[in-house]
Design goal:
Residues 56-151 form the TnsA endonuclease N-terminal domain. By secondary structure, the protein is α+β, with helices and mostly antiparallel strands. Helices cover 36% and strands 21% of the residues. It folds into two domains: 2-155, Trna Endonuclease, Chain: A, domain 1 (3-Layer(aba) Sandwich), CATH 3.40.1350; 160-261, no CATH class. The protein has seven helices and 14 strands. The strands form four sheets. The protein has a five-stranded mixed beta sheet, with helices on both faces. It has a three-stranded antiparallel beta sheet with strand order 1-2-3. The protein has a three-stranded antiparallel beta sheet with strand order 6-5-7. The longest helix is centred in the last third of the chain and has 23 residues, at 182-204. The chain is elongated.
């Protein structure tokens, strides 16, 4: 559900901190992102982290590059037109802005907002100038009641979590397609029984393989993965690649602990 852009071009879905698609950017579809889920991110790091956020049930909505903040004045610019006019105004006054554009803004189910910056785990610590910019941005956002995080993770294709997030991201899109897939319709008919089955697993602390759960409930492996996305079963998506032999447990409360974007993080500063 993503592809690497090959040339620079402007697009409606590009957010305000950049100048359209950049070589090396990724076009993707995140269901919780507006408009219509279409998004462009600057790196594979942001792409995979975006998948984790899109699957996290605690997140109600997300925005890619939601605004640009002038850390010297506190001015927050929400559209490209606003940013262009602001830069022109400063230019006529002979001033330069110190601008910061975060990677993501998350609106949680409780309506709180979190601002997220994504870095590679190999990322070298702040330079002095960048440190000052981030520190200023953090304080300005705190005054506005907005929580700020920097997540630094590993994003190699060989990592289990990366493979699993790609798989579950694809399945999530199948589940939300305009034409409902037959596999989801079938799962929906069996959903009450599957929830009871998962609750019994949770109560007894029993763990069963994907194939055992599928056989016991007359499901396919894909339908079991759908149930993982729905939060019915808890999978070790951060530790091992999901396959027929993967052991699952029944989720405690239908989803709120199954997929959390923070689990993808190796380092975090707030």
């Amino acid at each position: 559900m993503s592809y690497l852009t090959k040339k620079d071009q402007k697009g409606k879905t590009r957010q305000i901190g950049k100048r359209g698609f950049r070589k090396g950017s990724y076009f993707t579809h995140l269901l919780k992102s507006a408009p219509e889920g279409k998004s462009v991110v600057d790196s594979r790091h942001e792409l995979i982290a975006g998948y984790a956020m899109d699957l996290d049930p605690r997140i109600k909505a997300l925005q890619v590059q939601p605004f640009t903040l002038d850390v010297t004045t506190g001015e927050m610019l929400h559209t490209k037109d606003q940013l262009d006019r602001y830069r022109e105004k400063l230019k006529t006054r002979g001033r330069q802005a110190s601008l910061y554009t975060p990677d993501f803004a998350l609106t949680m189910q409780d309506q709180t907002v979190r601002i997220i910056e994504i870095k590679d785990a190999a990322w070298i610590d702040f330079t002095d100038s960048y440190a000052g910019k981030i520190e200023a941005a953090t304080e300005l956002l705190k005054v506005k009641g907005i929580h700020f995080e920097i997540l630094a993770g590993s994003y190699e294709d060989t990592l289990p979590c990366v493979q699993n997030l790609k798989l579950l991201h694809s399945i999530n899109h199948q589940m939300n397609a305009k034409e409902v897939p037959a596999s989801l319709l079938d799962l929906t008919e069996k959903l009450q029984a599957v929830r009871v089955f998962a609750a019994q697993m949770h109560e007894s602390a029993e763990m069963l393989s994907v194939s055992e759960i599928a056989d016991g409930n007359r499901l396919t492996v894909t339908q079991v993965c759908m149930a993982i996305v729905m939060g019915i079963f808890d999978a070790p998506i951060w530790r091992e690649v999901i396959n027929k032999k993967t052991l699952l447990s029944g989720a405690a409360d239908d989803s709120m602990n199954c997929i959390r974007y923070e689990h993808f993080d190796l380092r975090r500063r707030t």
